Amino acid sequence: MSTLKSKAIFTIQKGKLENFKDIATQCINCVKQKDKSTLKYDWYFSDNLCIVDEEFSDSEAMLSHMQNLGNLPLNLTEIATFNLEIYGSPTSELMNALKALNPTVFNFYKGL
């Protein structure tokens, strides 16, 4: 399984939802313009919670995605707490890049 999926889960501070959505829009526009191998980039909201559901062709695509976004994700973490889950088998290079985010990695077992 070379594709990678990730789920970023944000809990947004009170009164910061519109600011968060403005930054989210900037992220989406950036991905539309710059990413070539992002297969899925969906944002979901429920009250002060946000889930970003992503899929990449491989670890290199996720690294490229991170570089393309630049500091935008840091702007989000200034107004929200953040948790990251990775589904698949990320390369050691990607894991080193994600180290500060302390992601939970779920390795693929089996399925349909």
3D architecture notes:
This protein is of the alpha+beta class and 112 residues long. The protein has a single domain (4-106), classed as Alpha-Beta Plaits (2-Layer Sandwich). It is 38% helix and 33% strand. It contains four helices and five strands, in the order E-H-E-E-H-H-E-H-E. The protein has a five-stranded mixed sheet with strand order 2-3-1-4-5. Strand 4, helix 4 (92-98) and strand 5 form a beta-alpha-beta unit. It starts with a strand and ends in a 6-residue tail after the last strand. 18% of the residues are buried.
The major β-sheet equals: 5 strands, mixed
**In terms of per-residue confidence, which ranges show pLDDT below 50 for 5 or more consecutive residues?**
none
Domain tally: 1
Dominant shape = globular
Strand content: 25-35%
How does the SSE layout of this entry go?
Blueprint: E1 4-12, H1 17-34, E2 38-46, E3 49-56, H2 59-69, H3 72-77, E4 80-87, H4 92-98, E5 104-106
Parallel strand pairs: 4-5
Antiparallel strand pairs: 1-3, 1-4, 2-3
How would you summarize what this structure contains?
The chain is α+β, with helices and mostly antiparallel strands and 112 residues long.
List descriptors:
112 residues; alpha+beta; 5 strands; 38% helix; globular
